[in-house]
Amino acid sequence: MAGRLREVPKTCIFDSIGRQPDHNRMNDDLKIGGLDLRGGCRTLLPLGAVMALALALRMYRLGEQSAWVDEFQIASNFDAPTLSTYISLGRFRARDTFPLYYIVLYYWNWIGACFGVNGPCFLRSLALLCNMASIPLLYALTRSFFGRTAAGLAVLCFALSPMQIWYAQSIHVTAFWQLLAMVSLFGLHRAVCTRRMGWWLLVSAINLMMVWTQPFAVFLVGIEGLYILWRLRAHFREAIAWTGLQFLLCLSIFAWMWRAFRDVQKPEEDFTYLLPSLKSFLADWFADDAVMTNDPFVFQGQTWAFLSNPAQQAVLDAHVWIDWALIAFSGFCIAYCACVVAHALWKGGQERFRPPGAAHGAALILAVALCPLLIHLFVTVAWRPIILPRFTSYSALAAYAAVAGGIAFIPWQTIRKGAIGLLMFFYAYQLSLALPAVQRTDYGAAARIMTAEAKPGDTVLVAGTFISWEAFRYNAGSLSCEILPAYSLTAACDKAARLLAENDHAVWTVIEPFVFTLPPLEQFEQNLAAHGLSWTRRHFPGMNGLYLYRIVSDPEDGTMPKTAPVEIVAVTDYADMLRDLGYDPRDPDAERALRKAWDVEFVPTTFYYSMLALHLAAEGYWDMALRAAERAVALDEQLAFPRFVRAVILGERGETEAAQTEFNQALALDWIGYVRLYEPLFAALYWEKNPSRARECIEELDRFHVFMPYVCYVRAGAMKAVPVRSASR
Fold first, then answer.
1. What is the mean pLDDT of residues 466-491?
2. Measured distance CA(384)–CA(267) in Å, rounded
3. Which is the most buried residue in 215, 221, 262, 471, by most CB within 10 A?
4. Is residue 154 part of a domain?
């Protein structure tokens, strides 16, 4: 308006509240992705404040929490002699492992080792840096399309996001490929606007890195390809050329996947990957940070300890309606933003999108926010479940931009301020469920208690899942007690009784459910009492919790009531397993052997039968172990691992020639290269029968946490054997 005084720009990150976003045209030398280099203080000071807040939240307890199972599998092999060995060990545990992130992480660990810094805390710092680097990119993209108010609000959501804090504190790949996704989107926006070769090459290089980090990135690259065709439809040949290049980049991953694809976990083995409920799906789609709905495995119901118990319970109970409210609020903001963008594109209402291409870029942000999860839903229904929040975590960043854009477009200042206040309330509440919570299996807390209280000669048993023993040993730190596996609660009870019959030391038992269904602990405790044992129990929350028992012999005049032993009820279908192994399903001795070897979910696949064979061997049931190994081989004769297991069983039975033949077959089928790591060990254990040399081999392999059957430790004399039954099946 003529004669009106120019307002002094505010420095608050929400400085556009009450006014429409002010997009000034700038030349490319002074404006990069929405950042005005001439007004650096006005932009960078508020952005720096948000980044400082984000850093403080992400540094909180960064090194305190234990490495959970996924982190253990990534971080435990860093002392491998070569990078290729490290990659091979990663592919042994997960055939669909793609190498780029693990190469970066391997050298990140090497840098830390050069300065004497290592361990989970340092490894997590890579994810923290990647997560922090995403903030200015999100700001630049959001400001380019939706204005400064929306940009400030989007990065504030990112800073306060419990899910983003979780990703930033994890050794997992998520934060790394999330950063690549943001660089790709930023570069694509600049490439389409400027049509400069440098930006196109950047996008292509980043997309190549992205698909070689996480194969599900092909869905994002596909969305970008459609965007290129749409934006450059007037330059058809150029659009086809660059879209075709992105397609070829996606095809490149098949050079890595073609052999691994048949070896990935079977859908039935991924029994925790299910079609989500409607509420969980909507939370993942619109509001990742409705944490107890979106990811109840990580956020399991802890809040501020300084609150009274009734207050804590009230806070936890409120998530039922607050999560729905956050989903509805985010969904409404995204829908309103989509309406504004659609009006600008199809009805010519461009006044809110003054920079050229801003409305088109906003449409890209909406597509990235909404489409990937729909694609995952389609693949889940058509093929196998693949919906996990971290697989589409980059969509959450686009959703922050879309929600912020929807709020910034509200024409009424009072409502706009109220919407911002409501959004901040939602994030304050969600943080109250995240910051105080233990979000990983707390092996470290259990190990610290045993370090402080255990006496020389005490033994630790680890029960729960087939990987609990390895993961606990990795996290045990300076714990001096011998750590032995117990593959079921029945076995844990029986082993504790036999160990305590030999001496009066305590037996500590660590029990981890993880994603499996454990038998009732009350029945485990009843059987301890039936053996004349007493115990104390501690519980550590996080990822379905961890239980720590200290078990001792109950004196004759002890206060522990004597009870009759009970048969522990498990979810395992023992009759079906016995039938599949060729036993009479009513054979009590065979069922008793299975109960000692397995008491959680069992899927009749090659991998599960291979692990069952090793568990049976650890309990001394050699004939049954061999039959389980043979069943594993029969289910897939082209896999190396079941033949490796069968070679172990045959070697333990003293059938040296047959064991050597089976091991050679495993070597021939081992296209990854992990079986050859065991050649010196097998030669020492089974061919040459040289225990001292075998212990040296085990010590070397243990240095970088190669998978090692318990029976190999016992055969080499590297671990003690709990006395087993005198007769075996």
1. 94
2. 6
3. 471
4. yes
pLDDT digits (tens, 9 = 90+) for 23-45: 443 344 334 444 454 556 677 88
pTM of the model: 0.91
Structure tokens at 322: 């607050």
Residues 412, 314, single domain; the answer is: yes
- Are 518 and 465 in the same domain? yes
Give the gyration radius of the chain's Cα atoms: 29
Beta strands 507-511 and 459-463 are parallel
Compute the residue count for the chain.
Answer: 729
Q: Show the domain range for 461.
A: 443-553
Structural domains counted in the chain: 3
373, 403, 434 - which closes a domain: 434
Query: Is 373 contained in some domain?
Result: yes
- Whether 450 and 425 share a structural domain: no
CA dist list (Å): 531 to 279, 485, 490, 498, 554:
47, 20, 12, 10, 9
The Cα 288–Cα 283 span in angstroms is: 6
My answer on whether 621 and 498 are in the same domain is no
Q: Do 540 and 510 belong together in one domain?
A: yes
Residues 632 and 502 in one domain: no
**How far apart are the C-alpha atoms of 420 and 358, rounded to whole Å?**
23
Q: How many whole angstroms separate alpha carbon 408 and alpha carbon 358?
A: 15
- What 21-27 contacts at long range (C-beta under 8 Å, 24+ apart), as own/partner pairs, is 21/146, 21/147, 21/148, 21/149, 21/150, 21/352, 21/408, 22/147, 22/148, 23/147, 23/353, 23/354, 23/355, 23/358, 25/354, 25/355
Which pLDDT does position 346 carry in this prediction? 86
- How far is it, in rounded angstroms, from Cα 131 to Cα 158? 9
| Among the listed residues 537, 547, 525, the one whose alpha carbon sits nearest the alpha carbon of residue 472 | 547
Q: Is residue 15 part of a domain?
A: no
Task: Identify the residue whose tokens are 């435990």.
Answer: 76
Q: Which of 393, 409, 434 is the last residue of a domain?
A: 434
User: Tokens for 403?
Assistant: 């929600």
Minimum mean pLDDT among 199-208, 257-266, 272-281, 590-599: which range? 257-266
- 543: closest CA among 467, 440, 447? 440
Nearest to 74 by CA among 104, 114, 112: 104
Residue range 308-318: average pLDDT?
A: 95
Query: Mean per-residue pLDDT for 268-272?
Result: 80
Q: Residue 721 domain-assigned?
A: no
- For residue 118, pLDDT over 90 is answered with no
Query: CA–CA separation, 630 vs 647, rounded Å?
Result: 10
Q: Identify which of 202, 288, 304 has the alpha carbon closest to the alpha carbon of residue 245.
A: 202
